[in-house]
Predict the structure.
Amino acid sequence: MKTTRIAAMFTLVLSAALVSAGAAAAQTVATNYDTKVDFSKYKTYHWVDITGATYPNQLNDMMIRSAVDSTLKMKGLVRQDSGSVDLYVGYQLTTQEQKQLNTYNTGGGAWGYGGGWGGMGGMSTTTVQNLTEGTLAVDLYDPAMEQLVWQSTGTKTLNPSSNAAKNQANTQKATNKMFKNYPPAPAKPK
């Protein structure tokens, strides 16, 4: 009977650890925009570089731009590399090193009467994992107003694959999530 309870508790602790690990790997998205802007008027865009922004290597730069281009196309925007456009699109990428502590209980303990832990001792092992957290910010500027009108940021622990197609698919998924609510609904009159 005690063995069954210990096995059940170990399974519960392991399941909680896996759920927590999955939640930690999820992408966090935040969006902000000018509520006074009519986004339905925007039909065309071209890329601009943001002064002082951090950019990745050429391969990752192409991957990010391609993903954003694909997402904007699905939203009805057309990329133009010359001439007058409705929007300027720019992005920047930042990374931050983080330490994650993972603690695993590997020992006994059994439920006693009254819901408390009883009897057997246990052991805990803690490991330190170095993680890189990346944040991609995509900005939309209105050149006629000379101002930022929309921004979305996506933050996630980076775990690049050695499979380029998988990296592109993950980047596309991230940008789709960042632009999920674009264009924002027009503000309701008061």
In short: Confidence is low (pLDDT under 50) at residues 1-24. The longest strand covers residues 87-105.
